[in-house]
Amino acid sequence: AAMAGYGWARAVRGLLLDVSGVLYDSGADGGVPIAGSAEAVRRIKASGLKLQLCTNETQATREDFVRKLRALGFDVSVSEVTAPAPAACRLLRERGLRPHLLVHHDLIPEFAELDKTNPNCVVLGDAAENFTYANLNEAFRLLIGMEKPVLISLGKGRYYKETDGLKLDVGAYMKALEYACDVQAEVVGKPAKSFFESALAELGVPAEQAIMIGDDIVSDVGGAQQCGMRALQVRTGKYRPSDENHPQVKPDAYVNNLAEAVDIILQQL
Amino acid sequence: AAMAGYGWARAVRGLLLDVSGVLYDSGADGGVPIAGSAEAVRRIKASGLKLQLCTNETQATREDFVRKLRALGFDVSVSEVTAPAPAACRLLRERGLRPHLLVHHDLIPEFAELDKTNPNCVVLGDAAENFTYANLNEAFRLLIGMEKPVLISLGKGRYYKETDGLKLDVGAYMKALEYACDVQAEVVGKPAKSFFESALAELGVPAEQAIMIGDDIVSDVGGAQQCGMRALQVRTGKYRPSDENHPQVKPDAYVNNLAEAVDIILQQL
């Protein structure tokens, strides 16, 4: 029987999980798992619910990212990860675009197959320490020199939380280039609708039967709801109490962490 | 007698001049004068017109800036320079603000008198190579940790031209922090009305009798016109032909360079 107040947890067949701030807090040390999350992933799989990780992570290839998560105790595989770089590669190929990459060094292998000579677009990821003045200026000069500047941003997050504190995310640098070049970036990754639709296709469950669980009120919760999914905000990762007064976005429910969300959802099965 | 088409040049008693892109093109090598500009400054002074430099330069103290301009052949003095850092110091003092500075190393002496312990605002200048990821992240963390974040930006230019090409200006980084922290920066410098009003007060001429001459269609031309001045765009510095189709701003006239502007204005005296 449905428990009072948990109507949002009914009729679920699959879950999309954000990773950083939900499964673990990232950091230079490799990061630390969030208490109960590794066990929660195991319980989801044991329950028969489908699961897909839906991440804007662009500091590593999917292979390296999964290796790191497995080392932290998470039972996940590469096919269970939807990430912006492979989606961007599909888009670049479809449109015959040759990217100049301003991304984290460890992401570069994802673009190995693409022609990068004489670039006709800029691809921006969470480059972190690679966001030097010289590198941002190089991307700026390429863009402003194009007849029709094309800027593709892998996500548009404002910041994320690492073990040693908050870090500026790719969205801040996207805004810098948008302003300097008077262009609008195309976002590949959350909260873009096409990205959530890819994740749902890989999950194999329609939007009405899926729940997104994330720590970002705009990219995770708002984006998923725009696609017809339910969405929960966890009070871990970059969650801040002021998120609960967001003027545009209201999650279907707040949960203290992934483990609590899974407790409630499994009780409703 | 007024020459046909030069009505904009009548009844002038003083000129405000932008510096980078009008007097000289800046660069790591100290920059190079724009042909005819040093002679034009001399002719303005000889004519009895008043002159004030109105610059968003924030890579040096006014003293060092004037020393550089004099070495390039410009007959100018410190009292003839209106620049953002002294204006920001006045504002910080009036409001009891203790700044964290993200500015060019050579600008720091302008803030020597201010208390910078336990900062309650961030002051952003054209920090150039100081715009590392670590430095921008430090400013971000301070801002997002404030109960009421205060971000003061010394100008909001998109880019400027140096001898080796276009360079990202402070406005791009202002937009990055505005987005990351969900705040609106307070701009000290062009195109802020209060900044032009300070420059006019130092010029000692009312807006209706002054002409602003600059290479930036928005900061120079648009800002000056908002204050009731006439404004010319020179076709030097960062000028681009597409500026002539700007959707919001139309200068009172275009001139090829400062020398041509001064030719026309002196003929109308």
UniProtKB/TrEMBL annotation, chains A, B:
This is Phospholysine phosphohistidine inorganic pyrophosphate phosphatase. The keyword Nucleotide-binding does not apply. Its main location: cytoplasm. It catalyses: diphosphate + H2O = 2 phosphate + H(+). Gene3D superfamilies: HAD superfamily/HAD-like. It is an enzyme of class 3 (hydrolase). The gene is Lhpp. SUPFAM superfamilies: HAD-like (SSF56784). The keyword Ribosomal protein does not apply. Keywords: Cytoplasm, Hydrolase, Magnesium, Metal-binding, Nucleus.
